[in-house]
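Follow-up to my post from last week.
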Amino acid sequence: MVFLQSTFRRLGSLLLLLFLFMVLLPNSAFALDDGLLENGDFEEPPSGGFGGAEEEMAVASSIPGWTTNGTVELVRSGQKQGGMILIVPQGSHAVRLGNEAEIGQELMKLEKGSTYAVTFSAARTCAQLESLNVSFHESSSLSSSATVDLQTLYSVEGWDAYAWAFQAMGVRGDTGRIAFRNPGMEEDPTCGPIVDNIAIKKLFNPDSSSKKSKNVVINGDFEEGPWIFPNESLGVLLPTNLDQDITSLPGWIVESNRAVRFVDSLHFTVPQGKRAVELLSGKEGIISQMVKTTQGKQYNLTFNLGTAGDKCRGGQPLAVMAFAGDQAKNTHYAPTGNMTHQSSNLTFTAKAERTRVAFYSVYYNTRTDDKSSLCGPVVDDVRVMSVSAGVFLNQITRDYHWLMMLLALMFLTSFRI
Ligand SMILES: [Ca+2]
Ligand SMILES: [Ca+2]
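User reply:
Got it. Predicted complex:
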């Protein structure tokens, strides 16, 4: 009996220790870290080394961290092909995907139900239509994917960073596979997109914080979004996600064919906090959100409109078209003094339980220095607040005031009688 009691006591102590160990261990030990994927920049040399030949081609299966399918090459910065120098977005190396070629990586420690944003840099090698398919797989049948069009070059550097998001459903426990594939079949097999700098970030839904402030816009300050490398100065393009439930910019939909740019305060001028959205391509770049409203109630949409500080001024002015329900307003950027942003507002009466709030750039702007990089006005700090509540309270106070006067009058009159 005594022996049993002591055994149970020891077991109890052991369980307690185990529990404390689990609680005290940093969360990161159980979760996938944000940032660069394993050899996500392709700078880790393959087992045989990178080689030094002018036309180098690494053995596809030897790229550390990645599995490959089809013709996958490691390309070097400055490498020539025909008369063209291949573009490597970051560092000295990147991969090129040949016809229907694919690279993939197993992701571990994914959190069931969580949304992950994937940031990657891509460049095209030939003038033909080139695109890149990015997908997430948890089983052979279940996957989500998107094809990013690389035809439009947004920056003069010859490459752009893009973001895409997926949700981990936990079908295969905490693991899944991410893949990048060239869906094209070109006559010239040396064509095909170049991919580099692949990072991941677990997104949180900033829904709860908005309840306290009575602002019904989710992530209206754009502080939550995909990973931006601190040393990458081009921002991150957010391609259309109209037909997807999952977004790399929580709360928001890019509902146009063209992308908008997610910018950070390290490389751009941002009206509020550390992140904002730069609208590109005029009416072809639209961001929107369906916000919760009460039918018949009056609301005020306010937002900041500014310059990204990327030499976008000059030539065409900067202007934003804002929509809230059936109301629309065109605001031209005309800051006072040294301000780099200004506020604008739009009042509307909700016609339904959900109201669409949307923004696009009125003009098609390009940078004044290179005359080809797409740029535009920056939008930040979007809020939709009910004004009816305030009006209603004022009304009550006013009514109450009259009621008090009336009661006082009746009281005095009753004395006279
Ligand atoms: Ca690289
Ligand atoms: Ca912001």
